[in-house]
Amino acid sequence: MTIPPEAFFLHGNLRGTLQQRIRQLVAEGIVAGRFRAGEKMPSSRGLAAHLGVSRITVTLAYTDLVASDYLTSQGRSGYYVSENAPLQPMFETGPKPAVDHVDYAALTGRRFSSTEHLQRPADWAQFRYPFIYGQADVTLFDHQNWRQCALRALGKRDFEALTSDYYDRDDPLLIEYILRNILPRRGIEAGPGEVLLTMGAQNALWLAAQVLTGPGKRAVVENPSYPSVRAILQQTGCSVDWVDVDADGLPPEALPAAVDVVFTTASHHCPTNATMPMPRRRALIEAASEKNFVIVEDDYEFEMSFLKAVSPALKSFDSEGRVIYVGSFSKSIFPGVRLGYLVAPEGFIREARALRALSLRHPPGHIQRTAAYFLSLGHYDALVNRMKQAFKRRRLAMGEAIEAVGLHVAGQSGVGGSSFWMMAPEGVDTEVLARKLHCEGVLIEPGRVFFDPARAPRNYYRLAYSTIAVGRIAEGIGLIGDAIARAGPK
Protein backbone atom coordinates (compact mmCIF):
# COMPACT_ATOMS: atom_id res chain seq x y z
CA MET A 1 0.00 0.00 0.00
CA THR A 2 1.24 3.47 -0.87
CA ILE A 3 0.58 6.28 1.61
CA PRO A 4 -1.04 9.19 -0.28
CA PRO A 5 0.59 12.66 -0.11
CA GLU A 6 -2.70 14.00 1.30
CA ALA A 7 -1.91 12.19 4.55
CA PHE A 8 0.62 14.97 5.30
CA PHE A 9 -0.11 18.57 6.25
CA LEU A 10 2.33 21.22 7.51
CA HIS A 11 0.21 22.49 10.41
CA GLY A 12 1.13 25.34 12.75
CA ASN A 13 2.24 23.12 15.66
CA LEU A 14 5.40 22.10 13.81
CA ARG A 15 8.63 23.97 14.45
CA GLY A 16 11.99 24.23 12.70
CA THR A 17 13.06 24.23 9.06
CA LEU A 18 10.88 22.72 6.35
CA GLN A 19 13.10 19.66 6.34
CA GLN A 20 12.75 19.25 10.11
CA ARG A 21 8.99 19.73 9.95
CA ILE A 22 8.57 17.07 7.25
CA ARG A 23 10.75 14.71 9.28
CA GLN A 24 8.53 15.33 12.31
CA LEU A 25 5.36 14.67 10.31
CA VAL A 26 6.62 11.31 9.09
CA ALA A 27 8.16 10.23 12.40
CA GLU A 28 5.05 11.11 14.40
CA GLY A 29 2.84 9.23 11.95
CA ILE A 30 4.99 6.12 12.20
CA VAL A 31 5.28 6.17 15.99
CA ALA A 32 1.53 6.71 16.35
CA GLY A 33 0.87 3.72 14.09
CA ARG A 34 -0.86 5.65 11.28
CA PHE A 35 1.85 4.52 8.85
CA ARG A 36 2.68 0.84 9.17
CA ALA A 37 5.81 -1.18 8.50
CA GLY A 38 6.22 -2.02 4.83
CA GLU A 39 3.94 0.73 3.53
CA LYS A 40 5.36 2.81 0.71
CA MET A 41 5.93 6.52 1.25
CA PRO A 42 4.76 9.08 -1.34
CA SER A 43 7.40 9.84 -3.96
CA SER A 44 9.60 12.80 -3.14
CA ARG A 45 8.22 14.59 -6.20
CA GLY A 46 4.59 13.92 -5.25
CA LEU A 47 4.98 14.95 -1.59
CA ALA A 48 6.93 18.07 -2.56
CA ALA A 49 4.19 19.13 -4.96
CA HIS A 50 1.49 18.51 -2.34
CA LEU A 51 3.31 20.46 0.40
CA GLY A 52 4.51 23.22 -1.90
CA VAL A 53 8.20 22.72 -1.15
CA SER A 54 11.24 21.78 -3.20
CA ARG A 55 11.87 18.14 -4.03
CA ILE A 56 15.36 18.27 -2.48
CA THR A 57 13.79 19.29 0.86
CA VAL A 58 11.67 16.13 0.91
CA THR A 59 14.60 13.99 -0.26
CA LEU A 60 16.82 15.28 2.55
CA ALA A 61 14.06 14.62 5.11
CA TYR A 62 13.63 11.07 3.79
CA THR A 63 17.39 10.50 3.89
CA ASP A 64 17.52 11.63 7.51
CA LEU A 65 14.63 9.29 8.37
CA VAL A 66 16.47 6.39 6.74
CA ALA A 67 19.52 7.14 8.92
CA SER A 68 17.24 7.02 12.00
CA ASP A 69 15.68 3.71 10.85
CA TYR A 70 12.20 5.12 10.39
CA LEU A 71 12.37 4.47 6.64
CA THR A 72 14.24 2.15 4.29
CA SER A 73 15.29 2.97 0.75
CA GLN A 74 14.75 0.38 -1.97
CA GLY A 75 16.54 2.09 -4.81
CA ARG A 76 14.32 3.02 -7.75
CA SER A 77 11.32 1.54 -5.96
CA GLY A 78 11.26 4.38 -3.43
CA TYR A 79 11.04 4.70 0.36
CA TYR A 80 9.15 2.38 2.72
CA VAL A 81 8.31 2.42 6.43
CA SER A 82 11.01 0.38 8.17
CA GLU A 83 10.25 -2.90 9.92
CA ASN A 84 12.43 -1.63 12.79
CA ALA A 85 10.76 1.77 13.17
CA PRO A 86 9.79 2.68 16.75
CA LEU A 87 6.15 2.30 17.71
CA GLN A 88 4.22 3.47 20.74
CA PRO A 89 2.39 0.74 22.70
CA MET A 90 -1.30 0.38 21.91
CA PHE A 91 -3.75 -0.24 24.76
CA GLU A 92 -7.43 -0.96 25.01
CA THR A 93 -8.83 1.96 26.98
CA GLY A 94 -12.19 2.42 28.55
CA PRO A 95 -14.31 5.57 28.37
CA LYS A 96 -12.99 8.61 30.20
CA PRO A 97 -15.02 9.17 33.39
CA ALA A 98 -17.45 12.04 33.03
CA VAL A 99 -16.82 13.16 36.62
CA ASP A 100 -13.68 12.93 38.75
CA HIS A 101 -14.61 10.99 41.89
CA VAL A 102 -11.68 12.29 43.95
CA ASP A 103 -11.93 15.79 45.43
CA TYR A 104 -8.27 16.74 45.11
CA ALA A 105 -8.85 20.24 46.44
CA ALA A 106 -10.06 18.71 49.72
CA LEU A 107 -7.47 15.94 49.69
CA THR A 108 -4.50 18.31 49.25
CA GLY A 109 -5.94 21.26 51.12
CA ARG A 110 -4.79 23.38 48.16
CA ARG A 111 -1.53 23.96 49.97
CA PHE A 112 0.28 25.00 46.80
CA SER A 113 -2.16 26.18 44.12
CA SER A 114 -3.86 28.69 46.40
CA THR A 115 -0.65 30.69 46.79
CA GLU A 116 -0.68 34.09 45.12
CA HIS A 117 2.19 34.97 42.84
CA LEU A 118 3.10 37.50 40.20
CA GLN A 119 1.06 37.09 37.04
CA ARG A 120 2.30 37.86 33.55
CA PRO A 121 0.91 36.77 30.18
CA ALA A 122 2.73 33.97 28.38
CA ASP A 123 2.97 36.18 25.29
CA TRP A 124 4.53 39.12 27.16
CA ALA A 125 7.17 39.54 24.44
CA GLN A 126 4.42 40.50 21.97
CA PHE A 127 3.52 43.59 24.01
CA ARG A 128 4.93 46.91 22.87
CA TYR A 129 5.66 48.15 26.42
CA PRO A 130 6.65 45.17 28.62
CA PHE A 131 7.71 46.77 31.92
CA ILE A 132 8.04 43.33 33.52
CA TYR A 133 10.82 41.92 35.63
CA GLY A 134 13.22 39.04 35.21
CA GLN A 135 13.02 38.16 31.51
CA ALA A 136 15.96 37.97 29.12
CA ASP A 137 16.52 40.43 26.28
CA VAL A 138 17.16 38.58 23.03
CA THR A 139 19.06 41.59 21.66
CA LEU A 140 21.65 41.43 24.46
CA PHE A 141 22.21 37.69 24.85
CA ASP A 142 25.34 36.08 23.38
CA HIS A 143 23.65 33.35 21.35
CA GLN A 144 26.70 32.38 19.31
CA ASN A 145 29.06 31.75 22.20
CA TRP A 146 26.41 30.02 24.33
CA ARG A 147 25.70 27.71 21.39
CA GLN A 148 29.42 26.97 20.98
CA CYS A 149 29.77 26.17 24.67
CA ALA A 150 26.70 23.93 24.52
CA LEU A 151 28.11 22.08 21.51
CA ARG A 152 31.45 21.68 23.24
CA ALA A 153 29.67 20.24 26.28
CA LEU A 154 28.05 17.68 23.96
CA GLY A 155 31.43 16.40 22.73
CA LYS A 156 33.01 13.05 23.50
CA ARG A 157 35.52 14.64 25.87
CA ASP A 158 32.63 15.76 28.07
CA PHE A 159 30.55 12.61 27.63
CA GLU A 160 30.73 11.70 31.32
CA ALA A 161 29.68 15.19 32.46
CA LEU A 162 26.81 15.07 29.96
CA THR A 163 25.46 11.61 30.68
CA SER A 164 26.45 10.68 34.23
CA ASP A 165 24.16 10.54 37.21
CA TYR A 166 26.07 12.75 39.64
CA TYR A 167 23.91 11.44 42.51
CA ASP A 168 24.40 14.25 45.04
CA ARG A 169 27.52 15.80 43.45
CA ASP A 170 27.99 18.77 41.09
CA ASP A 171 30.15 19.55 38.07
CA PRO A 172 33.61 20.24 39.53
CA LEU A 173 34.46 22.72 36.74
CA LEU A 174 31.49 24.92 37.56
CA ILE A 175 32.06 24.68 41.31
CA GLU A 176 35.70 25.66 40.82
CA TYR A 177 34.77 28.73 38.77
CA ILE A 178 32.19 29.85 41.34
CA LEU A 179 34.77 29.49 44.12
CA ARG A 180 37.60 31.25 42.28
CA ASN A 181 35.76 33.94 40.34
CA ILE A 182 32.15 34.56 41.38
CA LEU A 183 32.29 34.47 45.19
CA PRO A 184 35.42 36.66 45.56
CA ARG A 185 33.48 39.46 43.80
CA ARG A 186 31.18 39.45 46.83
CA GLY A 187 34.00 39.19 49.36
CA ILE A 188 33.21 35.52 50.09
CA GLU A 189 35.75 32.77 50.65
CA ALA A 190 34.55 29.17 50.60
CA GLY A 191 35.68 25.62 49.93
CA PRO A 192 34.18 22.98 47.60
CA GLY A 193 32.20 21.42 50.46
CA GLU A 194 30.48 24.75 51.18
CA VAL A 195 28.79 25.19 47.76
CA LEU A 196 25.74 23.42 46.37
CA LEU A 197 24.26 23.98 42.91
CA THR A 198 20.50 24.44 42.71
CA MET A 199 17.80 24.83 40.08
CA GLY A 200 17.87 28.60 40.41
CA ALA A 201 17.49 30.87 43.44
CA GLN A 202 13.89 29.71 43.95
CA ASN A 203 15.06 26.13 44.52
CA ALA A 204 17.85 27.40 46.78
CA LEU A 205 15.36 29.30 48.94
CA TRP A 206 13.12 26.23 49.11
CA LEU A 207 16.01 24.02 50.22
CA ALA A 208 17.05 26.56 52.85
CA ALA A 209 13.51 26.83 54.20
CA GLN A 210 13.06 23.06 54.33
CA VAL A 211 16.35 22.54 56.18
CA LEU A 212 16.05 25.46 58.60
CA THR A 213 12.35 25.81 59.39
CA GLY A 214 9.28 23.73 60.22
CA PRO A 215 6.55 23.52 62.86
CA GLY A 216 7.63 25.31 66.02
CA LYS A 217 10.21 27.46 64.17
CA ARG A 218 9.89 31.19 63.67
CA ALA A 219 11.01 33.00 60.50
CA VAL A 220 11.20 36.68 59.61
CA VAL A 221 10.61 38.06 56.13
CA GLU A 222 10.86 41.63 54.92
CA ASN A 223 7.71 43.64 54.24
CA PRO A 224 7.46 43.97 51.30
CA SER A 225 9.45 41.00 50.01
CA TYR A 226 9.78 38.39 47.26
CA PRO A 227 6.32 36.73 47.19
CA SER A 228 7.61 33.18 46.79
CA VAL A 229 9.53 33.33 50.09
CA ARG A 230 6.26 33.71 51.97
CA ALA A 231 4.70 30.87 49.99
CA ILE A 232 7.68 28.59 50.60
CA LEU A 233 7.64 29.26 54.34
CA GLN A 234 3.90 28.65 54.58
CA GLN A 235 4.44 25.12 53.30
CA THR A 236 6.91 24.32 56.09
CA GLY A 237 4.43 25.05 58.88
CA CYS A 238 6.65 27.62 60.63
CA SER A 239 5.47 30.93 62.08
CA VAL A 240 6.17 33.95 59.86
CA ASP A 241 6.73 37.51 61.11
CA TRP A 242 6.76 40.45 58.74
CA VAL A 243 9.20 43.28 59.49
CA ASP A 244 8.72 46.56 57.62
CA VAL A 245 11.72 47.80 55.65
CA ASP A 246 12.76 51.43 55.42
CA ALA A 247 14.95 53.33 52.96
CA ASP A 248 17.96 51.27 54.10
CA GLY A 249 16.30 47.87 54.00
CA LEU A 250 15.64 45.59 56.98
CA PRO A 251 16.16 47.31 60.39
CA PRO A 252 17.81 44.86 62.83
CA GLU A 253 16.34 46.63 65.85
CA ALA A 254 12.82 45.78 64.63
CA LEU A 255 13.39 42.02 64.73
CA PRO A 256 11.35 40.06 67.30
CA ALA A 257 13.10 38.84 70.45
CA ALA A 258 12.83 35.18 69.46
CA VAL A 259 13.54 34.18 65.86
CA ASP A 260 15.19 31.20 64.17
CA VAL A 261 15.74 32.39 60.57
CA VAL A 262 15.74 35.80 58.89
CA PHE A 263 15.30 36.04 55.11
CA THR A 264 16.73 39.21 53.57
CA THR A 265 17.75 40.77 50.26
CA ALA A 266 20.27 43.11 51.85
CA SER A 267 22.35 44.14 48.85
CA HIS A 268 19.40 44.79 46.54
CA HIS A 269 16.11 44.67 48.36
CA CYS A 270 13.18 43.05 46.56
CA PRO A 271 11.18 44.96 45.47
CA THR A 272 12.18 48.46 46.69
CA ASN A 273 15.80 48.19 45.40
CA ALA A 274 17.21 49.58 48.68
CA THR A 275 20.82 48.73 49.52
CA MET A 276 21.54 48.03 53.17
CA PRO A 277 24.41 50.27 54.43
CA MET A 278 27.54 48.71 55.90
CA PRO A 279 26.80 49.71 59.53
CA ARG A 280 23.37 48.08 59.35
CA ARG A 281 24.82 44.93 57.80
CA ARG A 282 27.26 44.61 60.69
CA ALA A 283 24.43 45.26 63.13
CA LEU A 284 22.38 42.48 61.55
CA ILE A 285 25.29 40.05 61.83
CA GLU A 286 25.77 41.04 65.49
CA ALA A 287 22.05 40.57 66.17
CA ALA A 288 22.24 37.07 64.66
CA SER A 289 25.04 36.21 67.08
CA GLU A 290 23.32 37.73 70.11
CA LYS A 291 19.87 36.23 69.40
CA ASN A 292 21.21 32.98 67.94
CA PHE A 293 19.45 33.04 64.57
CA VAL A 294 20.50 32.23 61.00
CA ILE A 295 20.31 34.62 58.04
CA VAL A 296 19.35 33.54 54.53
CA GLU A 297 20.81 36.16 52.19
CA ASP A 298 19.25 36.26 48.72
CA ASP A 299 21.85 38.25 46.79
CA TYR A 300 19.92 38.67 43.58
CA GLU A 301 21.00 41.15 40.87
CA PHE A 302 24.40 41.80 42.44
CA GLU A 303 25.94 41.67 38.94
CA MET A 304 23.72 44.56 37.82
CA SER A 305 25.54 47.24 39.82
CA PHE A 306 26.35 49.95 37.29
CA LEU A 307 25.78 53.21 39.20
CA LYS A 308 28.54 52.56 41.73
CA ALA A 309 30.73 49.74 43.00
CA VAL A 310 28.91 46.84 44.59
CA SER A 311 29.20 46.37 48.37
CA PRO A 312 30.43 43.15 49.99
CA ALA A 313 27.77 40.56 50.72
CA LEU A 314 26.46 39.94 54.22
CA LYS A 315 28.15 36.56 53.98
CA SER A 316 31.54 38.27 53.77
CA PHE A 317 31.11 39.52 57.38
CA ASP A 318 30.07 36.09 58.66
CA SER A 319 32.61 34.72 61.15
CA GLU A 320 30.27 32.28 62.90
CA GLY A 321 28.70 30.41 59.98
CA ARG A 322 25.31 32.11 60.44
CA VAL A 323 24.71 33.30 56.87
CA ILE A 324 23.29 31.05 54.15
CA TYR A 325 24.10 32.76 50.85
CA VAL A 326 21.86 32.35 47.79
CA GLY A 327 23.19 33.24 44.33
CA SER A 328 21.82 32.74 40.84
CA PHE A 329 22.70 32.99 37.14
CA SER A 330 19.05 33.44 36.13
CA LYS A 331 19.20 37.22 35.79
CA SER A 332 22.73 37.47 34.42
CA ILE A 333 22.56 34.61 31.87
CA PHE A 334 18.84 33.92 31.31
CA PRO A 335 15.96 32.68 33.52
CA GLY A 336 15.53 29.42 31.65
CA VAL A 337 19.03 28.24 32.58
CA ARG A 338 17.63 27.45 36.06
CA LEU A 339 21.02 27.48 37.74
CA GLY A 340 21.77 28.91 41.18
CA TYR A 341 23.87 28.01 44.21
CA LEU A 342 23.96 27.95 47.98
CA VAL A 343 27.06 28.90 49.99
CA ALA A 344 27.03 27.87 53.64
CA PRO A 345 28.91 25.88 56.28
CA GLU A 346 29.43 22.23 55.42
CA GLY A 347 26.92 21.07 58.04
CA PHE A 348 24.12 22.94 56.30
CA ILE A 349 25.29 21.99 52.80
CA ARG A 350 25.36 18.33 53.81
CA GLU A 351 21.67 18.42 54.74
CA ALA A 352 20.66 20.54 51.73
CA ARG A 353 22.59 18.21 49.42
CA ALA A 354 20.76 15.17 50.79
CA LEU A 355 17.40 16.89 50.41
CA ARG A 356 18.22 17.96 46.84
CA ALA A 357 19.16 14.38 46.01
CA LEU A 358 15.77 13.18 47.25
CA SER A 359 13.79 15.74 45.26
CA LEU A 360 15.63 16.31 41.97
CA ARG A 361 19.02 14.57 42.22
CA HIS A 362 21.05 17.40 40.62
CA PRO A 363 20.77 20.06 37.89
CA PRO A 364 21.28 18.62 34.37
CA GLY A 365 24.93 17.84 33.64
CA HIS A 366 24.85 19.42 30.20
CA ILE A 367 23.60 22.74 31.58
CA GLN A 368 26.25 22.68 34.31
CA ARG A 369 29.10 22.00 31.88
CA THR A 370 27.82 24.53 29.31
CA ALA A 371 27.66 27.20 32.02
CA ALA A 372 31.14 26.25 33.22
CA TYR A 373 32.56 26.82 29.73
CA PHE A 374 30.55 30.02 29.22
CA LEU A 375 31.89 31.46 32.47
CA SER A 376 35.50 30.25 32.21
CA LEU A 377 35.98 31.44 28.60
CA GLY A 378 35.05 35.02 29.53
CA HIS A 379 31.70 35.11 27.72
CA TYR A 380 29.80 35.58 30.97
CA ASP A 381 31.70 38.70 32.00
CA ALA A 382 31.32 40.16 28.50
CA LEU A 383 27.56 39.50 28.64
CA VAL A 384 27.23 41.09 32.09
CA ASN A 385 29.15 44.16 30.92
CA ARG A 386 26.91 44.49 27.86
CA MET A 387 23.81 44.20 30.05
CA LYS A 388 25.12 46.81 32.48
CA GLN A 389 25.65 49.33 29.71
CA ALA A 390 22.21 48.70 28.23
CA PHE A 391 20.48 48.81 31.62
CA LYS A 392 22.25 52.03 32.50
CA ARG A 393 20.88 53.70 29.35
CA ARG A 394 17.41 52.34 30.01
CA ARG A 395 17.45 53.41 33.64
CA LEU A 396 18.38 56.95 32.63
CA ALA A 397 15.57 57.01 30.07
CA MET A 398 13.13 55.60 32.64
CA GLY A 399 14.13 58.17 35.24
CA GLU A 400 13.69 61.05 32.82
CA ALA A 401 10.31 59.76 31.61
CA ILE A 402 9.03 59.15 35.13
CA GLU A 403 10.04 62.65 36.21
CA ALA A 404 8.50 64.22 33.10
CA VAL A 405 5.16 62.50 33.66
CA GLY A 406 5.18 63.15 37.41
CA LEU A 407 5.00 59.56 38.62
CA HIS A 408 6.19 58.78 42.16
CA VAL A 409 9.20 56.52 42.76
CA ALA A 410 8.75 54.75 46.11
CA GLY A 411 12.16 53.08 46.35
CA GLN A 412 15.49 54.11 44.89
CA SER A 413 18.55 51.98 44.21
CA GLY A 414 21.98 53.45 44.61
CA VAL A 415 23.71 50.70 42.66
CA GLY A 416 21.57 49.88 39.62
CA GLY A 417 19.37 46.84 39.09
CA SER A 418 16.65 46.44 36.50
CA SER A 419 13.48 48.00 37.95
CA PHE A 420 11.78 50.92 39.72
CA TRP A 421 9.49 50.48 42.73
CA MET A 422 6.58 52.85 42.26
CA MET A 423 3.65 54.21 44.26
CA ALA A 424 0.41 55.45 42.70
CA PRO A 425 -1.85 57.96 44.47
CA GLU A 426 -4.07 56.72 47.30
CA GLY A 427 -7.24 55.17 45.93
CA VAL A 428 -5.60 53.81 42.77
CA ASP A 429 -5.78 50.00 42.67
CA THR A 430 -2.80 48.94 40.57
CA GLU A 431 -4.33 45.54 39.80
CA VAL A 432 -7.23 47.33 38.11
CA LEU A 433 -4.72 49.71 36.54
CA ALA A 434 -2.69 46.79 35.17
CA ARG A 435 -5.74 45.27 33.50
CA LYS A 436 -6.57 48.55 31.78
CA LEU A 437 -2.99 49.10 30.63
CA HIS A 438 -2.89 45.53 29.31
CA CYS A 439 -5.44 46.57 26.68
CA GLU A 440 -3.11 49.38 25.60
CA GLY A 441 -0.09 47.09 25.14
CA VAL A 442 1.49 48.05 28.47
CA LEU A 443 2.52 45.52 31.13
CA ILE A 444 3.20 46.55 34.73
CA GLU A 445 3.44 44.45 37.91
CA PRO A 446 0.96 45.30 40.70
CA GLY A 447 2.63 45.39 44.10
CA ARG A 448 0.06 43.92 46.48
CA VAL A 449 1.53 40.39 46.33
CA PHE A 450 4.84 41.64 47.77
CA PHE A 451 3.27 42.70 51.08
CA ASP A 452 1.99 41.08 54.25
CA PRO A 453 -1.51 39.96 53.14
CA ALA A 454 -3.03 41.26 56.38
CA ARG A 455 -2.09 44.85 55.60
CA ALA A 456 -1.21 45.01 51.92
CA PRO A 457 -1.64 48.40 50.22
CA ARG A 458 -3.02 48.29 46.68
CA ASN A 459 -1.35 51.34 45.15
CA TYR A 460 2.22 50.07 44.66
CA TYR A 461 3.62 48.63 41.43
CA ARG A 462 6.92 47.69 39.81
CA LEU A 463 8.29 48.87 36.48
CA ALA A 464 11.20 46.88 35.06
CA TYR A 465 13.37 47.73 32.08
CA SER A 466 15.24 44.49 31.39
CA THR A 467 13.44 43.79 28.10
CA ILE A 468 11.98 47.07 26.82
CA ALA A 469 13.78 49.05 24.10
CA VAL A 470 15.02 52.52 25.07
CA GLY A 471 13.04 54.11 22.27
CA ARG A 472 9.72 52.85 23.67
CA ILE A 473 10.23 53.80 27.32
CA ALA A 474 9.00 57.40 27.24
CA GLU A 475 5.85 56.55 25.29
CA GLY A 476 5.07 53.61 27.59
CA ILE A 477 5.59 55.69 30.74
CA GLY A 478 3.32 58.34 29.22
CA LEU A 479 0.54 55.80 28.82
CA ILE A 480 0.97 54.73 32.46
CA GLY A 481 0.80 58.36 33.57
CA ASP A 482 -2.39 58.95 31.57
CA ALA A 483 -4.00 55.81 32.99
CA ILE A 484 -3.14 56.81 36.57
CA ALA A 485 -4.51 60.31 35.98
CA ARG A 486 -7.80 58.84 34.75
CA ALA A 487 -7.94 56.45 37.71
CA GLY A 488 -7.21 59.09 40.34
CA PRO A 489 -9.64 61.21 42.37
CA LYS A 490 -12.10 63.10 40.20
What does this entry look like structurally?
The protein is α/β, with parallel strands linked by helices and 490 residues long. 38% of the residues lie in helices and 12% in strands. The strands form four sheets. The protein has a seven-stranded mixed beta sheet with strand order 4-10-9-8-7-5-6, with helices on one face. The protein has a four-stranded antiparallel beta sheet with strand order 11-12-15-14, with helices on one face. A two-stranded antiparallel ribbon has the order 1-2. The radius of gyration is 27 Å and the shape is globular.
Number of helical elements: 15
- Distance separating the two termini: 76 Å
> Biggest β-sheet: count, sense, barrel?
7 strands, mixed
How would the global form be characterised?
Answer: globular
Quaternary structure annotation? single chain
What key phrases describe this protein's structure?
single chain; alpha/beta; seven-stranded mixed sheet; four-stranded antiparallel sheet; 12% strand; globular
What is this entry, summarized?
By secondary structure, the protein is of the alpha/beta class. The protein is 38% helix and 12% strand.
Task: Furnish the topology, listing elements before pairings.
Layout: H1 18-31, H2 44-51, H3 55-67, E1 71-73, E2 79-81, H4 104-108, E3 129-130, H5 143-153, H6 159-163, H7 172-182, E4 195-198, H8 200-212, E5 218-223, H9 227-236, E6 239-244, E7 261-264, H10 278-291, E8 294-298, E9 323-328, E10 340-343, H11 346-359, H12 365-376, H13 379-405, E11 408-411, E12 419-423, H14 430-438, E13 442-443, E14 445-446, E15 460-464, H15 470-487
Parallel strand pairs: 3-13, 5-6, 5-7, 7-8, 8-9
Antiparallel strand pairs: 1-2, 4-10, 9-10, 11-12, 12-15, 14-15
Helix pairs in contact: 1-3, 2-3, 5-12, 7-12, 8-9, 8-11, 13-15
